[in-house]
Amino acid sequence: MNYNLNELQKKDKKPVFQELKGLVDAAGGEQRNLVVALLIMLLNTALNLSGPLLVGYTIDHYIQTKQFDGVLLFSGILLALYVVVFGGSYLQTRLMGSAAQRIVFGLRNAVFHKIQALPIAFFNQNKAGDLISRVNSDTDRLNQFFSQALLQFVSNIFMLVASGSFMLIINFKLGVVTVLPALCIWLFVNRLSPWVRKRNAANLESVGLMSGEIQESLNNFKIVVAFNRRDYFRKRFNKVNQQNYKTATGAGIANTVFMPVFSLFSNIAQLLLLIYGVYLIHEASLTVGLLISFFAYANSFYNPIRQLATLWTSFQTALASWDRISLMLGLSNDLEVVADGFSTGQGILKDTRGAAMDILEFREVHFGYPGGKEILHNISFRLERGKMYAFVGPTGGGKTTTASLMARLYDPLSGLVLLNGRDIRSYTPDERASRIGFILQEPLLFTGTVRDNILYGNERYTGLDNIAFMKIVEEAGLGELLAVFDKGLETAVASGGASMSLGQKQLVAFMRAFLRKPELLILDEATANIDTVTEQMLDRILDKLPSETTLVIIAHRLNTIENADEIFFVNSGEVVRAGSFKDAVEKLMMGKRES
Ligand SMILES: Nc1ncnc2c1ncn2[C@@H]1O[C@H](COP(=O)(O)OP(=O)(O)OP(=O)(O)O)[C@@H](O)[C@H]1O
What we know:
This protein is α/β, with parallel strands linked by helices. It folds into two domains: 15-329, ABC transporter type 1, transmembrane domain (ABC transporter transmembrane region fold); 386-411 and 425-594, Rossmann fold, CATH 3.40.50.300. It is built from 21 helices and twelve strands. A six-stranded mixed beta sheet has the order 6-9-10-3-11-12, with helices on both faces. The two termini are 42 Å apart. 34% of the residues are buried. Residues 344-354 have low confidence and may be disordered. The structure holds adenosine-5'-triphosphate. It comes from Pedobacter psychroterrae. Residues 35-317 form the ABC transmembrane type-1 domain. One of its GO terms (molecular function) is ABC-type oligopeptide transporter activity. Its main location: membrane.
């Protein structure tokens, strides 16, 4: 499955209305608050709009007739109206501000949980920096949208429609003359919107790329310093920064392109209103008070359009951000749990050698990484319970890939992997993880202590104090390994295990996997960085594993695989059974002699 978000983004184009609906749906439980805030806002707008009418009425009925009591009365009414509007605005801002924070809180959680639920292929195809940018910056843009832009947007549209209708009702012809220039604005906006949106999306993508670049250089700072290649990352960063500068400028221009057009047409409207309004007064079909009210309504009509121009930017950015977030939320893990076709009736295993003997079987497996060529070609082999297997072969031959399929980090393109005679895809992730222990070539440790890292994956011991936990560790025969760490279980681990040697990290990963007592333990070059004395210690510990545990060892050092019951050669995507260590060495020697 293609998990490359930037590629998917380009294909996934939805109509604005559908996007907007998705965005409002994302507000989840806050929709009630949104509706209340919307009602307050509508009431406020209506009150605001009645202001000019009251002013016009006061001019025509009290100022022109010099009845100052009436002027005072209407001034009082206007003041009360403005106070109510003020109270409403305050309430609405408070309501939306906190609702927006809760929406963003929920979205960040949803995005983070989604990332946790996706398969390794997703992480292979996306840069961590870009994902961080989606969790942090894109959700923050939605915060701005929900806390400010959304209500202002609706309020301005309401103001626009209401003041336009007022004008058409008060004097239809004058109303039409005043509203007409807005049509030109609409045509202009309509034509340019897709272009503006594209510019904003390109800008967000470049922000993601820049984060990716920063993250990569920070992750690899040791190599950067050791090779004195700071200029290499500087150049790469310069390139993405340049791209970001270009796209940001493009988006900036696109976002402000509407402004002068709005001003021009709003001025034209005022001019038309003045000319035609004076003509109507001259014809005695309009009063001076109503013309003044008309000017106020024309303002209330064109001002929102101008504000919508600014809000449109925020709106477009929010939609582009929502695109990026919703695309990720819509992804699913293609490593689904499926029904087991074998134990549920097809009976294929029944006529093969007793499934109880085999812990694992590969059956005609083909595999390639997403978007790449085939790496494993038609692989079939069986691993018996309680035996030790070694997978050897040249660099890049496919050993780690084979091991990854054993632990279902990926699914084959075709063929089957069976665990305990059952399709490995039919196990839930928990069941599978409890049966298979996998120590990776580059073990990853989390910030915390050695104890925290051993407990990761061994949650059942979490509640134990150090003494009780130490007892468990010693009973498992792992006590002597802890001597390598100056503060034992409490030795601090810095971010990513940067404060430890690779060998020490491998030991922690070993203890973590060993304590789980898996049925199948895969060690991928897990002892490559450990001295021979410690390696012998590990051998003694491995001997203490239950007799039914199967060991798969991937190694380059011959002494590591000497005791293997069976050796497999993995080369150019082929996995070939080579017999015992002695048989394998003989085959190797014969091969050399023949060549
Ligand atoms: N995540 C990945 N995406 C694409 N191709 C990959 C990925 N991981 C490995 N490969 C490719 O798959 C092939 C087999 O790699 P694999 O890591 O399985 O080899 P290996 O035998 O374990 O090598 P080594 O002894 O160096 O660990 C290589 O050609 C490698 O380039």
